[in-house]
Amino acid sequence: MLMEIRDLYKIYHEGMESEVRALDGVDLTIDRGEFVAIIGASGSGKSTLMNIMGCLDVPTYGEYILDGTSVTGLSDRKLAHIRNKEIGFIFQGYNLIPALNAYENVELPLIYQGVGMGQRQQRVMEALERVGMADRRRHRPSEMSGGQQQRVAIARAIATHPPIIMADEPTGALDSKTGRHVLEILHGLNQEGSTIILITHDNTIASTARRIVRISDGRITADGSREEVGL
Fold first, then answer.
1. Which residues form the domain of 54?
2. Burial class (CB in 10 A: 0-12, 13-18, 19+), 133
3. Residue 199 maps to a domain
4. Residue 11 needs a FRET pair 20 to 30 A away by CA distance; which of 37, 51, 138, 189 works?
5. Predicted TM-score (pTM) of this structure
6. How far is CA 74 from the centre of its chain?
7. What are 29's strand-pairing partners?
């Protein structure tokens, strides 16, 4: 088992009149190599859940075990180390650094990992070629379309060879054709062994996953195949 979440709560303004339970007693397990779509409306708790699963945030209560290690209560430094080693992130807003070109954006997490220059160059080019952006490696984000920026963001996420890729609404800002191409890349990575966790509000996008987890008001309301979840 790669991920195990036990009785997880994320509560804001606890005990106050304005208390919000973004996550309200979530139990979830994900095995290595799965492709899981977590679907829910805005405010359902899906992004909060991803942030905790991605070690970007910590729960109020409950336990989260990642690859055999309980990450609940770890220091920010240790959480950052786990993120850098275990997880590649893809966001709707791309999160590329405007002053850096495509090559430099993909290279940055490898520099943080302390990867040597020769190996860095090889991994960056492999990742850019994987998403069809090697010929645009000297272009900055402002010189690329949204779809091209998202492909560079995917290259950045996979360059460190993380076992887990978390994609938060990765097609949300893209046209349908480009969005399908991004999904094809994610499915290809999954076939090669990566565990993919896809956050979306779109039933059509979620239905491409083998397993779908529906979340509403901070609680998991369905978990299974497209037919079992009712898509």
1. 32-58+76-229
2. buried
3. yes
4. 37
5. 0.91
6. 20
7. 4
CATH of the domain at 144: 3.40.50.300
What's the domain count of the chain? 1
Residue 57: Cβ within 10 Å count: 15
Per the domain annotation, does 25 fall within a domain? no
* Average pLDDT along the chain, 231 residues, taken 10 residues at a time: 96 92 97 97 94 94 94 90 90 93 97 94 96 96 95 94 94 87 92 96 93 97 91 79
SS3 of residue 220 by DSSP:
strand
Give the whole-angstrom CA distance, residue 199 versus residue 172: 10
199 touches 29 (CB < 8 A): no
**pLDDT by residue (tens digit) across 26-80?**
999 999 999 999 999 989 999 999 999 999 999 999 999 999 999 988 999 999 9
**Residue 202 one-letter amino acid:** D
Q: Measured between alpha carbons, how far is 141 from 230 in angstroms, rounded to an integer?
A: 39
Q: Which of 91, 70, 97 is nearest to 82 (CA)?
A: 70
Q: Which residues of 177-211 are buried (b: 16+ CB within 10 A; e: fewer)?
A: ebbebbbebbbebbeeebbbbbbbeeeebbbbbeb
Give the whole-angstrom CA distance, residue 209 versus residue 217. 22
Q: Are 214 and 221 in contact (CB under 8 A)?
A: yes
